[in-house]
């Protein structure tokens, strides 16, 4: 992955940097695995996350079978996707719990001495996986979010595209719903930054502004 290659090339530098700025503006979402390599740099203690439940239909089961083929049926991810497809077909028309409990706690990392402070820059074009990253990142006492409220497309997720039988149309729909609902919705309102960057700060100057805040200037 491109993100992992950049982190690998700069790992030694990041691990001795006091203030670390991550600019994810205009992100494209994607897989939660895309930000996994960033978590060790901002980790300050166990990260508690809330999972999702899946709506069981034959179409969604077929989707998870396609994921199994994409990962490879002999891989751990592939086997998990194939198992979910089987479970879906046995519970059509109901919600399927992804895991035994709707929450998880990640305590697998070690708190690094550096970076000491992490600023993440976001805007209204960050959605989906970008927002999941922000929810997990902001549990760290090292992290502050800067920018604008995000797009708000996380409560119902796991987007899938399906072509019509004649191939003329493509339907994009979601397969899952977060267990955060109804207590902590993200959709529409988005994730609110800790530091709102107003119109008086040009977009091209956001990173410089964040640097100044983190350095106490």
Topology (SSEs and partners):
Layout: H1 2-14, E1 19-23, H2 39-42, E2 47-50, E3 52-55, H3 58-71, H4 76-89, E4 95-97, E5 103-106, E6 117-122, H5 129-137, E7 143-147, E8 156-163, E9 170-178, E10 195-196, H6 206-214
Parallel strand pairs: 1-6, 6-7, 7-10
Antiparallel strand pairs: 2-5, 3-4, 3-9, 8-9
Could you walk me through the main structural features you see in this protein, from its secondary elements to its overall organization?
This protein has 6 helices and 10 strands. The protein has 2 domains: 17-51 and 104-154 and 190-217, 2-enoyl-CoA Hydratase, Chain A, domain 1, CATH 3.90.226.10; 52-98 and 161-179, no CATH class. With 217 residues, it is of the alpha/beta class. Helix 3 runs antiparallel to helix 4 (76-89).
For the biggest β-sheet, the strand order reads 1-6-7-10
Cα(first) to Cα(last) distance is 36 Å
Shape-level CATH architecture of the largest domain: Alpha-Beta Complex
Unreliable runs, pLDDT <50, ≥5 residues? none
Shape: globular
Give the strand tally.
10
CATH fold label of the largest domain: 2-enoyl-CoA Hydratase, Chain A, domain 1
Number of domains: 2
CATH class of the largest domain: Alpha Beta
Helix content percent band: 25-40%
Task: Spell out the helices and strands N to C.
Answer: HEHEEHHEEEHEEEEH
Overall mean pLDDT: 94
Q: How many H/I helices? A: 6
How much of the sequence lies in strands comes to 15-25%
The major sheet is characterized as: 4 strands, parallel
The named CATH superfamily of the largest domain: 2-enoyl-CoA Hydratase, Chain A, domain 1
CA gyration radius, whole angstroms: 19 Å
User: Pairing-aware structural class of the strands and helices?
Assistant: alpha/beta
